[in-house]
Amino acid sequence: MRMGSFVATLGVKPQVVTLALDELLNRGMPIDRAVVIHTDDSIDGMRESVGRLREEASSYYSRLDRPVEFRFVPIERDGRVVSDILTEEDAGAAFRAIYKAVLNEKREGRVVHLSIAGGRKVMSVYGMAVAQLLFDDDDRVWHLVSEDILRREDRLHARPGERVVLVPVPVLRWSMVSPVMTELVLREDPWEALKAHRRRVEIADRIQLRYFLEHELTRSERELVELLVSEGLTNVELAERLHRSPKTVANQLNSVYRKYRRYRGLSGRVNRLRLIADLREVVLGRSS
């Protein structure tokens, strides 16, 4: 059985962390580690929030049948702990902190349960981006919607019979391949991971386009497309260069458009401008 890690962003309400963690434990999730990401805990509000969680980790979670170890991760930028998420640079630091926290758990082969209910809203946005980059099928993003409990009292745990609403958030992963099986797991910085992901997508797209050109088209259609894309000629000019009639060129282009639209799963029309734009790099690279 793979053990799980609960990763949570923290604001000034520590019960956002404890209520979500308790609910997951009540559902039987095998979680034995909690990673709490927070801003500067020397500042009022966050000091009390982190302090209460540390106390609860020692007095409550360490004494469960399956103890939960707590780890606290401050958000740092330029060698200092960020006091609040107020600037683009602060938000970038939060992104890096969430990314590295999740990445560390993934490198250990652990299932990650990411809670995005605490802290500034931008932290939940970056949390979703991290999930899209790093999550596997078994990982989950959760959002706590039990606002009545949070507002009503300052308790860290729900009473017996009190309902805690914790909902899963769908994650549209950027790749069906596990990130642990790719170079993404080697990236310490999320921006570098994003660049690496874009390169992978671009390479995969070029492979698909090359396959279309070489295997989905007839030899005659391929000759026509390569000349069109490389030189941007009119139908009459294409006909003259290829020693075909303009009508034959028009019919072959319409056939190519239909094939391309079906191959790429496009809903809109395909025309010569779209074809030239999409295939230019593949055609010019193939001819060089």
Overall geometric form: elongated
What would you call the quaternary organization? single chain
Could you tell me the CATH topology label of the largest domain: Rossmann fold
- What's the rounded overall pLDDT mean? 87
Strand order of the largest sheet: 3-2-1-6-7-8
Number of domains: 2
Regions with little confidence, pLDDT below 50 for 5+ residues: none
Give a description of the structure.
This protein has helices at 15-26, 46-59, 88-107, 121-134, 147-152, 190-216, 219-231, 235-242, 246-264, 272-287; strands at residues 4-9, 31-38, 69-74, 76-77, 80-81, 111-115, 140-144, 166-169. It has 288 residues and is of the alpha/beta class. The strands form two sheets. It has a six-stranded mixed β-sheet, sandwiched between helices. Strands 4-5 form a two-stranded antiparallel ribbon. Strand 4 (76-77) and strand 5 form a beta hairpin. It is elongated. It starts with a strand and ends with a helix.
Please tag this protein with its features.
288 residues; alpha/beta; Rossmann fold; Arc Repressor Mutant, subunit A; six-stranded mixed β-sheet; two-stranded antiparallel sheet; 8 strands; elongated
